[in-house]
Amino acid sequence: MTSKALTVPAVALGTWAWGDSGEAGEGYFGSRLSESGLREVVEKAQSNGFTLWDTAVAYGMGRSETVLARALTGRDRSEYQLSTKFTPQIAGDGDDPVADMLEQSLERMGTDYVDLYWMHNPADVARWTPLLIPLLESGKIKHVGVSNHNMAQIALADQILGAAGFRVEAVQNHYSLLYRGSERAGILEYCHEHDVRFFSYMVLEQGALTGRYDPANPLPEGSSRAAVYNGILPRLQALTDRMGAIGENHGASAADVATAWAIAKGTTPIIGVTKAGHIDGLVRARGIELAEQEIAELQALADTADVDTRGWWEQEM
């Protein structure tokens, strides 16, 4: 059986951008991240109780895992939780591609176990899920989650693991004020009823919900996210203005309000952090108690914006 119930902080920390090459203009965010800068992020996060780090082999083909391990160097393994993923699309052709990919992750991260191991997407639930069972039995993975799975796929994975005395303990889907597919499909409710932790990613919609961008000040031209979001910024204005106003009442920013909303909905947001200052926002978000009326108002404004931000990699929930 699983060692003990999965417990996680209010917010998980995403390291997708840590997989960038570091060359300006390269990698998804085109960011310039330094080793000392990321160690500072880790220091500040850990001292504020944000101790769950989410990565994946697919983030920079292992670079994110390597960089994360380097930033965590010197800390006792019991002080933090590691979350990484098996991505079917990049599986090798050995006898056990799941075990092989996990071994490579463990090696890059300098550890002998992963706290939370994800099926990155539902490419073939019946094929890949059974291969997690020996890894759970050996203790190399402590808990299993599924990402980008719909209700039927979550149930199938849970049934396969259940036959061996394990279960799906976490679901990680795109979930934000602008994209509530998992809520409408009943996945959130299922998670709450079955004590499954729901992790929400793209809570800030890659910056579009931070309040930093508007039609006059769009997302950086030439970036992948500019292509997706710049065209809809005019429709988001009323929502982000209201988020900013609610934030001001709490001494916080619009981005903090987006994160606080995801927490209020009973989810664990995964927020990408590349600067120590980002942690200050998470501390603020964790402390914000949104009123029911504020939540309803934000959701109504989001519905009125009527945009579809479902990623190309996502199925309809």
TrEMBL record:
Gene Ontology CC terms, in alphabetical order: cytosol
Gene Ontology MF, one: oxidoreductase activity
Record keywords, A-Z: Oxidoreductase
Every NADP-dependent oxidoreductase domain range: 11-302
Superkingdom of the source species: Bacteria
InterPro entries: AKR, AKR_Detox_Biosynth, NAD(P)_OxRdtase_dom_sf, NADP_OxRdtase_dom
Protein name: Aldo/keto reductase
Natural source organism: Actinospica durhamensis
